[in-house]
């Protein structure tokens, strides 16, 4: 499945450039995680990145992910970043090197995943809850938390359910796809309100976990991670405190247009 020499050189070069930009924009004390978003791109492109030491890859479609996971090295850490339906949970859970679900929005799906994960899986499946920070109808995700949110909010109910009913899942943080408008606007204003909303949600959730669950493990050493930033705005996202960035076009080039994307 090797890529042509030209294509491999092109992908390698783009990956190296994105990596150095990620490193330069990184503001936290932990190195950020770069997820290479490979939807619609051939397995040969993924292998090129893998051979350059890239281990985290993101896919949006269950069947495409299943096929790529079967064909590619088992050391790859797959991140599912597409719209997630509970009837696909079983198929996803069967992928041994599925590393993270970044788009969880319902307890029904969480329970289906937890139930379907094989008993001999070595590590829990990482979970990010998707938050619709821009409030756009076309985006999925739960509403962000605000300081007036009470315990009945959807995010808090989902978190409670995850912790009490899904032992094979590990709540790792929150994810958002900000609005394109914010992304463009933020370049002038130096602040992206979607990123700010995700951060505020994380801080409130973290406080809630420490307060309600009273567990030391939700303190300082167990900071919830943020997945925000894509090709057009990952540097701004990192400056705003993102831990995980998801970059597709910047590494692999343009994708064929699809209306559902
Ligand atoms: C496609 C996709 C990306 C990558 O987008 P680019 O603009 O190509 O970097 C990131 N996150 C999600 C959820 C996506 O669907």
TrEMBL record:
The keyword Glycoprotein does not apply. Its cofactor is pyridoxal 5'-phosphate. GO terms for molecular function: pyridoxal phosphate binding. Residues 16-256 form the Alanine racemase N-terminal domain. Keywords: Pyridoxal phosphate. Pfam families: Ala_racemase_N. The modification N6-(pyridoxal phosphate)lysine is found at residue 39. NCBIfam families: YggS family pyridoxal phosphate-dependent enzyme. Belongs to the pyridoxal phosphate-binding protein YggS/PROSC family. Pyridoxal 5'-phosphate (PLP)-binding protein, which may be involved in intracellular homeostatic regulation of pyridoxal 5'-phosphate (PLP), the active form of vitamin B6. HAMAP family: PLP_homeostasis (MF_02087). This is Pyridoxal phosphate homeostasis protein. It comes from Hypsizygus marmoreus (White beech mushroom).
């Amino acid at each position: 499945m090797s890529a042509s020499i030209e294509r491999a050189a092109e992908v390698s070069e783009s990956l190296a450039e994105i990596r150095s930009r990620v490193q330069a924009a990184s503001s936290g004390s932990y190195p950020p995680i770069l997820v290479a978003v490979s939807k619609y791109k051939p397995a040969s492109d993924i292998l090129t990145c893998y051979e350059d030491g890239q281990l985290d890859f993101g896919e949006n479609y269950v069947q495409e992910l299943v096929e790529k996971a079967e064909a590619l090295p088992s050391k790859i850490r797959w991140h599912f970043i597409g719209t997630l339906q509970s009837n696909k949970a079983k198929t996803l859970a069967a992928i041994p090197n599925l590393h993270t679900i970044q788009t969880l929005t319902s307890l029904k799906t969480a329970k289906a995943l937890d139930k379907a994960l094989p008993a001999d899986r070595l590590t829990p499946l990482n979970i990010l809850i998707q938050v619709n920070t821009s409030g756009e109808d076309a985006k999925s995700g739960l509403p962000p938390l605000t300081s007036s949110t009470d315990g009945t909010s959807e995010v808090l109910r989902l978190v409670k359910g995850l912790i009490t009913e899904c032992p094979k899942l590990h709540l790792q943080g929150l994810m958002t796809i900000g609005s394109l408008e914010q992304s463009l606007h933020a370049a002038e204003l130096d602040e992206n309100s979607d990123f700010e909303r995700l951060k505020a949600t994380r801080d409130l959730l973290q406080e809630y976990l420490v307060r309600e669950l009273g567990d030391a493990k939700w303190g300082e050493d167990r900071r919830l991670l943020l997945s925000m930033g894509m090709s057009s705005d990952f540097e701004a996202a990192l400056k705003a405190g993102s831990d995980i960035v998801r970059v597709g076009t910047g590494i692999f080039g343009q994708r064929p247009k699809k209306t559902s994307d």
